[in-house]
Design goal:
- The chain is an all-alpha fold.
- It has one domain.
- The protein has seven helices and no strands.
- The chain has helices at about 15-30, 35-40, 45-65, 65-70, 75-85, 95-115, 140-150.
- Helix 1 (about 15-30) packs antiparallel against helix 3, helix 3 (about 45-65) crosses helix 5 and helix 3 packs across helix 6 (about 95-115).
- The chain is elongated, with a radius of gyration of 22 Å.
- The termini are far apart.
Length: about 150
């Protein structure tokens, strides 16, 4: 990551709003993508949610001023805009959605969060920890236990 700069000095209010929207959409997309890849590829609902977030981020990135995009070359603007365009297509490929949300979106979030400071943390979400599988205390079946009681 490059030097952290205060974007308030060179970004307009419109750009700051768009950047905040991009980070919030990225955080939501990452929250939707917490499941396994196989689950995502079989879930049209999650694919639709991530597709909507990618389209939103791509459109917002395209509306940013060219001056801001040139001052932040460490952020993959072109990849984000391309991912949004592909996600908005009539036949968005779920594998490409998954790749975008796992490779492009985290880079955007990681680079933008320090630049935006407090406004980026509004929608920070941490997925709940996965519950450990517990083994049964008594491996015998109910049928076997009922015979023991007789």
């Amino acid at each position: 990551m490059g030097d952290v700069v205060d974007i308030k000095r060179y970004a307009s209010g419109r750009d700051r709003k768009l950047l905040t929207d991009i980070v919030q959409a990225a955080q939501l997309a990452q929250a939707y993508a917490t499941y396994d890849r196989s689950y995502f590829l079989s879930s049209p609902d999650d694919q639709r949610k991530i597709s909507e977030r990618l389209v939103e981020m791509g459109q917002d990135a395209g509306r940013l001023s060219s001056a801001l995009r040139q001052r932040t070359p460490q952020i993959p603007w072109a990849a984000l805009i391309e991912a949004g365009a592909k996600a908005g297509g009539p036949e968005a490929d779920p594998k490409e959605l998954w790749t975008a949300v796992k490779r492009v979106v985290p880079r955007v979030t990681a680079e933008l969060a320090p630049l935006l400071g407090e406004s980026a943390s509004v929608f920070t979400w941490t997925p709940p920890p996965k519950q450990k599988r517990t083994s049964k205390a008594n491996p015998a079946s109910k049928r076997a236990r009922s015979r023991e009681r007789r």
